[in-house]
Amino acid sequence: MTGAVLGADGLRRCGWGDSADDYRAYHDTEWGRAVHGDQALFERISLEAFQSGLSWITILRRRAGFRAAFRDFSIAAVAEFDDADVERLLADTGIIRNRAKILATVANARAARELDGGLDELIWGFAAEPDRPAPRTLAEVPAVTPESTALAKALKRAGFRFVGPTTAYALMQACGLVNDHLADCHAR
């Protein structure tokens, strides 16, 4: 199905949002809602990078592990991680143990620490127009937009890694910079 689906609880959701309990909770309470604050956005950008090539449910189910491993995504703390921390993370079964993604997260914390105006200001500067039409089917939801391409370029210029246009758009969706809940989804 490509449109909203009727859940057992009688609520219509984006199709993916009713496929598992973890997705249902995430869809109903987080996805598409405005996220502000440098630390909260750093967590989301980090998790989106770790998700690259994997299913989002894999990340959701390890979110507590990621938070513990990356000190609740404190930019100041992660920016100070050294080689010993990277080795610790590579041995941590509570997260995705990918060296490139771990190194990118540390580099991204350092880049975020150096931003004039902060991560919140940078990311929210690329929010989509709020009055764009609601998608009726999942097929109408893009993977990349001009805004996500521009955001990815701005993040890369600031020194961020693992932030291509597709990852940037997923971040925009997750953090409410764009509302891609389907037109007949209860969360819209």
Question: What keyword list fits this structure?
Answer:
2% strand; 188 residues; mainly alpha; 10 helices
Principal-axes geometry comes out as: globular
Uncertain stretches:
none
Largest sheet properties: 2 strands, antiparallel
Share in helix: 40-55%
Mean pLDDT: 96
Amount of beta strand? under 5%
The Cα radius of gyration reads 17 Å
**Count of helices?**
10
Distance between the ends:
18 Å
List how many beta strands DSSP finds. Answer: 2
Strand order of the largest sheet: 1-2
Question: Please, could you describe this protein's structure?
Answer:
The protein has 10 helices and 2 strands; from the N terminus they run ββαααααααααα. It has 188 residues and is an all-alpha fold. Strands 1-2 form a two-stranded antiparallel ribbon. A hairpin with a 5-residue loop joins strand 1 and strand 2 (12-13).
Task: Give a short overview.
With 188 residues, the protein is an all-alpha fold.
Task: Give me the secondary-structure topology.
Blueprint: E1 5-6, E2 12-13, H1 21-29, H2 38-51, H3 56-61, H4 63-69, H5 75-79, H6 83-90, H7 99-113, H8 118-124, H9 146-157, H10 165-174
Antiparallel strand pairs: 1-2
Helix pairs in contact: 2-7, 2-8, 2-10, 9-10
